[in-house]
Amino acid sequence: MGQKHTGGDPEGLLPLTPVTLNILLALADEERHGYGIGVEVRERTGGKMRLGPGTLYGSLKRMVDGGLVEESEGPDEEEPDDGRGGYDAGRRRYYRLTGFGERVLAAELGRLEGVVRTAQAKGYFPPQRGASSPGEA
User: Fold this and answer.
1) Strand ranges of the sheet holding 32-33, from the earlier edge strand across to the other edge
2) Per residue in 95-131, pLDDT tens?
3) Listed residue (51, 61, 58, 63) closest to 98, CA to CA
4) pTM of the predicted protein model
5) Which of the four CATH numbers 3.30.565.10, 3.40.50.1970, 1.10.10.10, 2.60.40.10 does domain 10-76+87-121 have?
6) What is the predicted pLDDT for the residue at 3?
7) What is the structure's pLDDT at 118?
8) N or C, which end of the chain is more exposed by having fewer CB within 10 Å?
9) Are 104 and 16 contacting, i.e. CB atoms less than 8 angstroms apart?
């Protein structure tokens, strides 16, 4: 699997696993270190998804190998204390989405939106509250 898929069709990787999807979502708005990714996923999912170190770092390695994410230098400014004492700040690996990772995330979100629309059309999944259809005012 060591070959990077930085080109090609993102849809070939779909559907994403829940772990991969959540890691990509955690990196969608900013680069983060591994611990920060785990915290963001846990908080965003209300504690329903907790990524242990083996799952998190194994997934990140596969995602780097697959060209979805890359290691980065990390933010330029000093990060607020995250409760880990800062002793390991120099050893932290930061990650960010690659262009290919952004395309894969967009393709997966589009796929999921299609699933929800199909369910709504069949009356199985209620429409979002407060959402208006085109033409409604």
Assistant:
1) 32-33, 94-97, 69-72
2) 999 999 999 999 999 999 999 999 989 998 666 665 5
3) 63
4) 0.78
5) 1.10.10.10
6) 47
7) 94
8) C
9) yes
User: Biggest alpha carbon distance in the chain?
Assistant: 56
Distance CA 53, CA 51 (A): 6
Backbone angles phi, psi at 71, to 5 degrees: -75, 150
Residues in the chain, total:
137
Hey, where are the domains in the chain? 10-76+87-121
Rg (C-alpha) for the chain, rounded Å, is: 18
d(CA 31, CA 76): 11
- Cβ-count burial of 76 within 10 angstroms (0-12 exposed, 13-18 middle, 19+ buried)? exposed
% of the chain with per-residue pLDDT over 70 = 74
Q: How many CB atoms lie within 10 A of CB 106?
A: 13
